[in-house]
Amino acid sequence: LGVELQKRKLTMLGTVRKNKPELPSEILKMQGRPLHSSKFTFTENTTLVSYCPKRNKNILVMSTMHKDASLSTREDMMPQMILDYNSTKGGVDNLDKVTATYSCQRKSTRWPLVVFYNIVDVSAYNAYVLWIEINQHWNASKLYRRRIFLEELGKALVTPKIQNQARPARSPAAAAVIANVQ
């Protein structure tokens, strides 16, 4: 992934799970490692660090933007890679938290559906952010602006389909919804 991103002039910085077969065994060993010690591994494109914050526990972080084994001047001698990761890691977590508030996701064992639901949630949130940036005073006094936006977005997406429907709805409830929209 790191090499493919670098081909597109993008860098990456993130944690790595310890069960990956590509990881060198020396970086995973915890026996006899002192507290706050770091082990670095370098390739042509990436840097991998194993940091020991607690006894018998290590953190693995990989980067394609860091090229050296720089450590902080703090008491715990934490690698600069981990400090940079900690300062920027909240974006995905915050997006997951925000999209979970109003989500279209349903339980499914089919992974394409799960991916589709996530795309819809993230796209709807991005549309909301752009809408609020352009129309800053839109429903500014209301605390549930995002819900109002999502309701209007859903209606705007469904209304043309309902209006172009060739045959009438089968149930009285569906007919009432169509009549209400038209």
Word description of this protein:
By secondary structure, this protein is an alpha+beta fold. The protein has 2 domains: 87 residues, no CATH class; 90 residues, no CATH class. The protein is built from 7 helices and 4 strands, in the order αβαβββααααα. The chain has a 4-stranded antiparallel sheet, covered by helices on one side. The longest helix is centred in the C-terminal third of the chain and has 24 residues. It is elongated and about 75 Å long.
Which short descriptors sum up this protein?
182 residues, alpha+beta, 2 domains, four-stranded antiparallel beta sheet, PGBD, PiggyBac transposable element-derived protein domain-containing protein
List the helices and strands and how they pair.
Elements: H1 2-7, E1 13-15, H2 25-28, E2 38-42, E3 47-54, E4 57-63, H3 80-88, H4 90-101, H5 111-134, H6 145-163, H7 172-181
Antiparallel strand pairs: 1-4, 2-3, 3-4
Q: How many helices in DSSP terms? A: 7
Name the overall outline: elongated
* Amount of helix: 40-55%
Low-confidence stretches: none
What average pLDDT do the residues reach?
Answer: 90
User: Could you say how many structural domains there are in total?
Assistant: 2
Distance between the termini: 49 Å
Give the SSE string. Answer: HEHEEEHHHHH
In angstroms, what is the radius of gyration? 25 Å
Structural class: alpha+beta
Q: How would you characterize the largest beta sheet?
A: 4 strands, antiparallel
Using DSSP, what is the number of strands? 4
Lateral arrangement of strands in the main beta sheet: 1-4-3-2
